[in-house]
């Protein structure tokens, strides 16, 4: 066989790999060391006492032990005294032949038995006297013969006997554990008191018991304890009836925090309680930590306040909106300014500030705001209307531009930190703060929206609703503060789309529900119960995650205190940061830009008004509008070739006529059926809409 024949006879095979194909995109089991396994078992085993499972618990157990030891002499003396009293009572009954006497009285034979009873009583007195005399003589003899020591020993044994007799009876702590689980004395959180409180508040039945999950521990300036409710009871009901429980525990409800323990370590019947020693809001308020921050990232939740346990509560602002409601002088403006402070310290954030309170509270923000006004006249309302129209147009533009960005920069139709800081994309996080929003919402100045007559208030309401709905994903943050959170002032459609809510003290539970949401009072959250003296304390119902709140629906928070000088310092810092970053624009930059208004587009977007009949439009614009129909709003770009073919027009003349109507052809990108992107000439729908509008507005 020559070489050529050999190479034809032997067929080359693909290499064979001796291996297993592993899909490493799936979560892989992690090898666990013995130490890890032991640790895990230790933590979950019911045999290991809870006190040995965590340092905090062990420390608390040690403290309790020391306290028990220190208290034991007093407890012993108490038991001996109780024993002595019990012994005396028993002796009195015996000496007065009480049982026999009562039986005779019962049978109405006391007179017959009187002599007999008296004799017996005398006899027992004599026995008592004889016993005392014998005991004294015996004691004397013992002292004389053996000294006082045996006497002391006898008395000690006697005191033990009395202490046993005087030990606490059934059900009292000290004899039998009231909760399942290990038990030692606690200072204030007596388990029996807790069980009784739950029973009195009708949160558990008379025969039901609580189970102790985590013994009472000192946390901050109060006591924390975690308990399991009986199987059929729900933690949500305890939260709902927090006030009854506070009353049963004899504390003010602001001192009691009840939370459901959720996630892996919890279940629907596990409740964590914290009882403050004193009113947690009576202490002086804390200054905002933002004062120490050189700058802030708007994408990070803003430090908003502290709860009663002194845990920091942060408020996320990007991708959401906030409604703050309260009666006057409770700290609304202060709360809204806290949210603003975080955004002011991020130079990449654009701010619109409308202060309808017309006071001095917001003035310092003028040096950083892109748009700023302070006043409560109709002209201010109309100016706000224009801002909002501009913002609606801005949001529409952002969505259109985001659609054109590639998936790596913009994976969803949502702005990201990178997009928001890219000056070329011009989509910064834009926050609009409106203080006393009821003023523009109630304004009755008539406005003409594309032929439809509305009041300025109605139109502002529609624009705000649209912005709250569509704005957050495009980086628009809406913060509205109102003194009048009633259903007439804040349209329900607007309330429904505002993500986060903060209710300071209001007049009644209805107003509280208007701010916090339907039925929130029945779930235990009612801001009308807050005390007038608790300025800056409110119920926060956040949207998304807030640090340290877990899955809590809402929480009582005391906002950080930011007096005017701190606020001014933050605004000054915000200005310096913007100057350095070159992002000082609009009002703060000294050139008040006139809002770019696309009234027709906005009216179409919010559905509040219809454009004028298209018959009024000149050709070929009318034909283009007719051909595009709904696509006018849904598409960004229409190639000239498509229009020329559909309308059967001469391309050069068509281009010239469109240009004369204010809509010259531009270059744009289209994707053909095979997925290839090509650059072609055509018209942006925005330009077409603007052409329609300018024609409609022409006299
Ligand atoms: N976190 C806080 N801690 C302590 N005091 C506060 C706090 N927040 C606000 N206050 C106090 O409450 C007062 C009223 O606050 P603010 O001006 O924000 O009220 P408001 O609800 O906006 O009032 P109005 O409805 O009149 O505009 C402030 O002067 C301030 O002293």
From TrEMBL:
Keyword rRNA-binding: no
Single GO term (MF): DNA binding
Superkingdom of this protein's organism: Bacteria
Residues spanning the membrane: 123-145
Keywords: ATP-binding, Membrane, Nucleotide-binding, Transmembrane, Transmembrane helix
Record has Nucleotide-binding as a keyword: yes
Protein name per its UniProtKB record: S-DNA-T family DNA segregation ATPase FtsK/SpoIIIE
Domain FtsK: from-to ranges: 299-513
